[in-house]
Amino acid sequence: MKKLMIYVCLFVAFLLTLTFNAQAQTKKKGISPQGKGAIIGGAGGAVAGGLIGHNVGGALIGGAIGAGGGYIIGNEKRRSDEKKRRAAWRRAHPKHHHHYTKTTTH
């Protein structure tokens, strides 16, 4: 029974990987980086938890921890990409990016 659960977890992780690859190739906008990180982390955590704990409880705990970690990593990637995009826009549009200085009159 334990080996069956391990094989089921591996099969589900494989199906999730195929689904992400298919969605990434067919759509420009799909799942957010946070969502991708959560799903990939959850699947990986479930497989690792199932292999380490040799039971369903280990798979559930590993999946939850992996999903949380994946979400955090995906969120940081999104923030980094957004910061780079804004910096590139500022470089391309220097006229629109003003630095205000105080002027004094005597």
Question: How would you portray this structure in words?
Answer:
There is one protein chain. By secondary structure, the chain is mostly helical. The chain has a domain at 35-76. The protein is 78% helix and 0% strand. It contains three helices and no strands. The protein has helices at residues 2-26, 33-53, 56-92. Helix 1 runs antiparallel to helix 2 (33-53) and helix 2 runs antiparallel to helix 3 (56-92). The N and C termini lie far apart (87 Å). Residues 71-106 are annotated as: Disordered. Residues 1-24 form the signal peptide.
- Helix count, per DSSP? 3
Report low-confidence residues grouped into runs of 5 or more.
none
Rg, rounded, reads: 22 Å
**What portion of residues is helical?**
over 70%
- Pattern of helices and strands: HHH
Class by alpha and beta content? mainly alpha
Region (Disordered): 71-106
Keywords: Signal
Biased composition (Basic and acidic residues): 75-84
Biased composition (Basic residues): 85-106
Short structural description:
The chain is mostly helical and 106 residues long. The protein has helices spanning 2-26, 33-53, 56-92.
Layout of helices and strands, plus pairs?
Elements (H helix, E strand, L loop, with lengths): L1 H25 L6 H21 L2 H37 L14
Helix pairs in contact: 1-2, 2-3
Keywords: Signal
Give keywords.
0% strand, 106 residues, mainly alpha
